[in-house]
Amino acid sequence: MMTEFPMREAFRPSFHFTPQRNWMNDPNGLVWFAGEYHLFYQYNPDGDQWGHMSWGHAVSRDLVAWTELPLAIPEDERHWIFSGSIVVDWANTSGFGDGAAPPLVALYTGAERGDDAMQSQCIAYSHDRGRSWTKYGGNPVLDVGLGDFRDPKVFWHAASGRWIMVVAMSLASRIALYGSDNLRQWQHLSDIGPAGPTGSVWECPDLFELPVEGEGGTRWVLKFDVMRSDEPGIAVPVVLTGSFDGTAFAPDADAGGIPHWQRADHGHDFYAAISWSDIPASDGRRVWIGWMSNHHYAAAVPTSPWRGAMTIPRALSLRRIDDVYRLVQQPVAELQARRRTLHEPRAITLPATQTLRLVAPTDLPLACEFHVRVHERSVASFTIGLDNRHGHHLEIGWDCTNARLRIDRSAGLMAGNSVFAAPCSASLAAAGPLTLQIFVDRGSIEIFADDGATVITAQHLMPDDGWSATIARRENTQDFAELGVWLL
């Protein structure tokens, strides 16, 4: 069925996926098949708090408009269904095919119930485009006797002619790699870590190859999420670039052998991102999506009857910056079809202490896209403020003195939560033009700076009725910026 919502339902996003009701967190099983992008996700079919983990399911043909489908893989008497991935078994290596079409095969973590719960990797398969699933009678297919062993991401590695699984040994700060010819028997290949952010929970890994902009070559990218022990409530999506030979991943490092650790997103609300498998070669993109929340306060977010949203899907590439390969994220181009112009893209002049105020048409939700280009970032500090008639305020700020971009959401409904109220910020280059692509939806904001080289994602939870935007600057230069604003 097609999920539709009243336009004024509080905080329901206009162009981000949310389930019709109940709790949702990590995206799972992202796969393109038979003309559909499949989005599975961690889901509680029984309530709006974390629990009874099963897989929900939605599909889209354009990564923007989503149709929510019935529950895909429910919990059972033995296992809750934790995170995992789906592949199209084109050659029927698993033997699960029915001869009519290749099966979809889901590999997920079965989390046992009970105080001494073990986690192991299990299989389910589908013959009807993911609408129904059969759990494999031989589950689990990979069990190492650990209680924190989860989130398998599986892909076909053509050069070595086998399936590869990346899976987290969460409390050991380690990512393990396994290989298989048939998706049912798995052989340990190598480990990544412990290194870098140790003493923390590692989870939700992914491993994929990306093109390098302007160079023609490729590098491999390893991503996982770190729930940091030194900063409670702070989760960091970590990225390493490097090479992969079908057995081991070797990270790119400096002259001293220290890997080039990167943070994929500098906000508080980007977690558990994984990428779609089997996007056709004619498309050529690697696209991922993340859960737009934070376990520190997700249960307290004042949404109803649902809790949890996904980010904008993002197309990925690499760019060499200061001789280091950096992850670049761009909002998928399909979002442009939603644009309705509010402020025609053009140059603006804004003398010091003056402001430009934009007021949205009445009865429209806060759903818009800002493009800002500052001609010289080193001399132009400015703020973009969003306000409503209740006195709530959200502010985006560029500090040219310290070369930092920030989001301040301390004047909203969740201001009493210390993690939520803490500002999100990122350091950028100190000189040159500054470009910002800013997506604001009911309840969230995503900033893509410097053509996607730096991203900040955060919820804002500011009621959107009677909203307006104000741009203000301090420096006394004549030629300020170019600005375009679209409603979405």
Q: Could you explain the architecture of this structure?
A:
This protein is mainly beta. It folds into two domains: 22-333, Glycosyl hydrolase domain, family 43 (Tachylectin-2, Chain A, 5 Propeller), CATH 2.115.10; 339-487, Exo-inulinase, domain 1 (Jelly Rolls), CATH 2.60.120.560. The protein is 1% helix and 49% strand. It has one helix at residues 418-421; strands at 22-33, 36-43, 54-60, 67-73, 79-88, 104-112, 119-126, 134-135, 142-146, 149-157, 162-169, 174-180, 187-192, 201-211, 218-227, 235-244, 249-251, 262-263, 271-275, 287-291, 306-307, 314-321, 324-331, 340-348, 355-359, 368-374, 382-387, 393-399, 404-411, 424-427, 434-441, 444-449, 454-459, 468-473, 481-487. The protein has a six-stranded antiparallel sheet with strand order 24-35-26-31-32-33, with no helix packed on it. The longest helix is centred in the last third of the chain and has 4 residues, at 418-421. The radius of gyration is 22 Å and the shape is globular. The chain starts with 21 loop residues before the first strand and ends with a strand.
List keywords for this structure.
single chain, 488 residues, mainly beta, Tachylectin-2, Chain A, Jelly Rolls, 2 domains, six-stranded antiparallel beta sheet, 35 strands, globular
CATH class of the largest domain: Mainly Beta
CATH architecture level-2 label of the largest domain = 5 Propeller
Can you tell me the CATH topology of the largest domain?
Tachylectin-2, Chain A
The main sheet comes to:
6 strands, antiparallel
Output mean pLDDT: 89
